[in-house]
Task: structure prediction
Amino acid sequence: MSTDGGTDRIPGFRRSGHAPASADGVLSRFFRVGVFMKKWIRGTVFVCVLALIIGRTYQILSWKDTSGSYISSFQQLYNTDDHLMDVVFMGTSHVFTGVNPALLWEDYGMAAFCLAGSGQDKDTTYYNLLELLKTQSPEAVCVDLYALTFGRHSITGNIYRSTLTMHYSLNAAELVLKEVEEDQMDHILRWPIIHTRYRELGEYDFVDSPLNEFGRGFVAGWNTGESAGISEELLYDVTEAELSEENQEWLQSLIDLSKEEGFELIFFIAPYDLGGDVSTWRLYNGAKSFAAQNGIAALDFNVLAEEIGLDFSTDFSDSTHLNSLGAEKLTDYLGKYLNANLELDDHRGDADYELWEEDLAYYRSLELEVLLSAPIDSVREYAELIAGSGNISYVITLNGDYALYLEDIAELLEPLGIDVYDYPDGGKWIFADGELMFIMDNLSMDTYTYQLDEDVEVTIENVSLKEEDATVFEDVKINGEAQTSMYDGVYIMVYDTLRHQFISTLGWN
Result:
C-alpha cells in the first residue's frame, strides 16, 4: 500500500497528521455534548419556571386598586382592545363617581371610559393619559379641573394608586420621579413595597375582579349623604384668581398634548359642595378664562347644577361625590354636549365593543338590586321590574291560605305571566330570562331540580311543617339548604345570573 496520497481514503485519518479518532473519543465527545445539552435544558426550564413563579407572585402581590375595593381603571384599560375608545374622562373620584360610560353607551353607542383614580393629581393625570394614548386614540379627552386645588398626593394609598398600577414602562418610571421624593427606586421596582402585602391579601389578589374585565371606570353607588351645594354669593362672583405657574404649566401641557395627538380637549368641573369657598371658586374662574383664551371648552357643573336638575339633597353620596342618581344627570348633559359637538359613530351592535354592552348589563343589574330592595309601594311595580330585566331568574311559591289576598296577589303574578285563577291550590314556578322553565302545583309529590347556574342548584318539592300556630314551608332548597318561608301567600327569590347571586327575596300576603 502506498504511504503517499492515499491517506484521505482511510477512515478516521486526517491530512493534519493527527492520529485517527478512536471510537472511544467519538463517544466521549457525544457524551460531553449530551451532558451540556442536559444542563442547558435544565437551566432553561429552571429559568422559565422561576420566571413563572416570580410573575405569578408579582400578580398576587401587586397593587390592584385605583378606586377602592380592587377596582382598577388600569386593569380595565389593559383589558380593552386597541383604538376603541371615543371619549375619555380623567380626574379624581369626582369623575369615577360622576360620569357613567354605561349610560353614554346606552343612549348614543358612545365608547366612553373613565381613567380616574382617588386623589388623581396633575402629574398623574398627564402620565396616565400618556399611558392610555399608547393603545387608544380617543376623539375627545375630558379633564376635571379639581386637581388645580391641590398639589401632589399626600395620602400613601393614593401615591400607591398613582405609581404602582401602570405596567412597568419608562412612562411609569417618569411618573414616579415626578410624584415621589423619597424611596423613588422602591416605587420604580415596586417589589420593596408590595412584598409586605401578604398580610392583607384577599380573594381578588388571586383571581381578577369581574368588574376589571369589562368595567369602564365608573363606580356605582346609591347612598345618599348631605351636601350643601354652592352659596348664592359665589354664583354671582366673576372674580378671577391668577393661576400659579404650576397650574398654568399643567393646563398648557394638556393643550399641547391634544394638538400633538389630535384629540379634542374639554375641561370640566364636576359638581361638589363648595360651600362658601371663595378662593377655590375664583381659581376655577381663572382656569375657565385661561381655557377660553386657548380655545378650549370648560364646563362648570357647579354653575350648571340647576340647569342639569341637580338636587344637592338627593344626588350626592357625601358632600363631594355624586351618587348614581346624580351621575345620571351629569352624564346626560355630557352626552348631549358631546353628541352635539363631536361626530362620533354609534357602535351599538358592533361585536368589537362587547365590553361596553357588558358594562351596561352590569350597571343595570346593580340598579335592579337597589330598586328591588327599596320600600315597596306597589307589588305590581316590583313584578314589572323583574319581568322587564335580563339576566334574571326567579323562583315563586304560592302557599297556604291566600284566598283573602287573591286580588292583590294577582297584581304581583300577572306581570310575571302567571294567572293566579288557574291555580286554586297554589303552585311553584321557575322562570329564567322571562321564560317559564318549570311549574308544580301544591298537590304534587314530585321533586324537581333546576340549575340556576353552574354553582347554584334549586330544588322544588312540597314540604310544610307545623310550628305552634304557624305553618312553615320548606319547599325551596338552594344547594340543599331549605329556604324557610312562613308566608300564607307569595314568596319570591330573584337570582342574578350575571353576578351569580340572589339580589332580592320577598314574602308577601
User: Anything to note?
Assistant: Residues 401 and 488 are 5 Å apart (CA to CA). The chain has 18 helices and 16 strands. The longest strand covers residues 501-508.
